[in-house]
Structure formats: structure tokens, C-alpha cells
Amino acid sequence: MRKLKIRTKLTVDILMAAAFLFNIFTGLAFFLGLVSGGGGQQLRGGRGSVESTSIFDLGSKSAFSIIHDWSGIIIIILIIVHLILSWDTLVCYFKSAFRNAKVAKIEQSCKNV
To answer: Residue 86 carries which DSSP code?
Structure first.
């Protein structure tokens, strides 16, 4: 059971890192104006259109916007799953942080986590 929990945590962490990288990549592409096409939100509030010579041409801003939005939603879901899987450890840390107990006692109480 413990190996399954560790493997699940590792999988969640890897997926969270991948979603975070997608979010960074698309966010920087929006910020730097590297995405061309219609759809999505206007960058910098201007009326001028972005040139069609773009490094990242996935069709339109809306494609990047969908990737950006969904990777953000996936990050939030995976953070919640990560917190659920690590709940026992978090409780142990908070208990030890707010108690005036000896170090040996705290180590013993967190050993099974």
C-alpha cells in the first residue's frame, strides 16, 4: 500500500510539473506576443493586430488560450490531490510546529507518516 501511495504521489508531481511548464510556455507566448491569429484575449489592450509571422502558429490565440486555461485547471486539481495524499504528513508537521514537545517525541509521532 505504501509503494502505491509513493508511486501515486510521484505521478501527481510529474503531471503537475508538466502542466506547470505548459502554463509557463503559453503564458510567456501571450506575454511576448508570439502568438498570432484571432480569438482569445487582446494583448496589451491595443487595436492593432499581431503580425501573422509567428514562431508558434498553432492556429490562433484561442488554441493557446485553451491550452493555457486547461493546464491551469489541471494544476489546481493536482494540487488538491497532492494535498489529500500528503494530508497525514501536513497534520504531523503542523502539530509539531504548534506544540512545545521534545524533538524525540515529535520524531516518534511522525515516524509512521
So the answer is: T
Instruction: Return all residues near 92 (Cβ < 8 A) that are at least 6 apart.
Output: 109, 110, 113
CA-closest candidate to residue 30, choices 18, 19, 41:
41
DSSP summary character for residue 48: S
CA 17, chain centre distance (Å): 6
CA atoms within 13 A on the CB side of 61: 20
Domain assignments of the chain as residue spans, ordered by start: 2-86
pTM summary value: 0.67
**DSSP 8-class letter at 113:** -
Give CA angle at 9 (86, 14), nearest 5°.
130
> What are the pLDDT digits (tens) for 83-100?
999 898 888 888 777 776
Place of cell 504528513: 89
